[in-house]
Amino acid sequence: MTDLSTDILISGGGVAGLTAAAAFGSAGFSVSCVDPAPPVTDETADGADLRTTAFLQPSLKVLKDAGLWDRLAPHATELQVMRIVDAGGKTPAPRVSRAFKASDVSDLPFGWNLPNWLLRREMVARLKELPNVTFHPGTGTASVLTRDVEARVTLTDGTRVRAKLLIAADGRNSPVREAVGIGAKTIRYGQKALAFAVTHPEPHNNVSTEIHRSGGPFTLVPLPDRDGRPCSAIVWMERGPEVLRLAALPEAEFNAEMTARSGALFGPLRLETRRTVWPIISQIAHRMYAERTALIAEAAHVVPPIGAQGLNMSLADIRVLLELSRAAPADIGNDGMLELYHRRRHPEVSARVAGIDILNRTSMRGERIARDLRAAGIAGLYGLPPVRKALMRAGMGVRLSA
């Protein structure tokens, strides 16, 4: 067996785990990152994650400090306007539409959108530049034993790792979270989401559009042009059986149904990628730490894909954990540091999970009175400028007191 010693072991090589590895490595810590599945870094390959991530303003500093932003910026699409549309009338046609402009509250866009498969490609490339970071794709975490001074982890290839801090970034069914005895509250909605990319004749003009009718939102997020045509990523949330029906439709029928669901706001939509199906839940861990162990990202919290909150919450976890580690390197992974991490993150995470749960339930409602109330709510909130601006700042992830 091989024995390794490192400052930080990150279990999980998804977008959050790779970001954490780059962030801690760029800060000078020795880092090992493991994941049982090699990252898929090609859009056309089997298993490619066709979802996209909109990095909101507070995430930009994390990406810059990790040495990632210079790699990502050339591929990013700015999100200058967030448009909320209610299409809850007798037909899917828009009946209420309100545009929230980033320029009303900031000199910067709301965020920057990138495909998840591309994020993995650029992040893996960044890790190769860091001599103090090792990435072990195809290797997972087999067992965890923690002590007061270190975590002792055995990997699936038999390697034994001693780490001052173990970071669980291994997903909603986190083996590390289970190994250290932390439970989680899970809410199931009976929903799934379709994720794919489309082209359309009308330009998106850097507008992200969230359309509400029933079953869940239909969201179009701007991407760079594809073969000279405007392109958007779509996340289409519906009841589970309906998503499975849509996923199986012949392409021409699917194009027609999604164009109708979009209210034809961008003209006829044309499918450009495979359709991938994702389960929708809310989940929050009872605690975000255990002895020598910190939970981040979906190991700590899961939310439906509304308002681009999920991965941005994960980067906030990384930011706080890194701040505490840099402030007292000698204390990295000790109980005091991890208790402080939990106190700084868990209340905010809990509030956001609860808020998105309410928004999702509201979006799912199909009864006429519920649809009418939703439409009135969108119009009413937009009509109050102080409330509108406060909601926009909160949606960006900016503290309202900032």
TrEMBL record:
<dbReference type="InterPro" id="IPR036188">
    <property type="entry name" value="FAD/NAD-bd_sf"/>
</dbReference>
<dbReference type="GO" id="GO:0071949">
    <property type="term" value="F:FAD binding"/>
</dbReference>
<dbReference type="GO" id="GO:0004497">
    <property type="term" value="F:monooxygenase activity"/>
</dbReference>
<dbReference type="InterPro" id="IPR002938">
    <property type="entry name" value="FAD-bd"/>
</dbReference>
<keyword id="KW-0285">Flavoprotein</keyword>
<comment type="similarity">
    <text>Belongs to the UbiH/COQ6 family.</text>
</comment>
<keyword id="KW-0274">FAD</keyword>
<dbReference type="InterPro" id="IPR051205">
    <property type="entry name" value="UbiH/COQ6_monooxygenase"/>
</dbReference>
<keyword id="KW-0560">Oxidoreductase</keyword>
<dbReference type="GO" id="GO:0016705">
    <property type="term" value="F:oxidoreductase activity, acting on paired donors, with incorporation or reduction of molecular oxygen"/>
</dbReference>
<dbReference type="GO" id="GO:0006744">
    <property type="term" value="P:ubiquinone biosynthetic process"/>
</dbReference>
<comment type="pathway">
    <text>Cofactor biosynthesis; ubiquinone biosynthesis.</text>
</comment>
<dbReference type="Pfam" id="PF01494">
    <property type="entry name" value="FAD_binding_3"/>
</dbReference>
<keyword id="KW-0503">Monooxygenase</keyword>
<feature type="domain" description="FAD-binding">
    <location>
        <begin position="6"/>
        <end position="351"/>
    </location>
</feature>
<dbReference type="InterPro" id="IPR010971">
    <property type="entry name" value="UbiH/COQ6"/>
</dbReference>
<protein>
    <submittedName>
        <fullName>2-octaprenyl-6-methoxyphenol hydroxylase</fullName>
    </submittedName>
</protein>
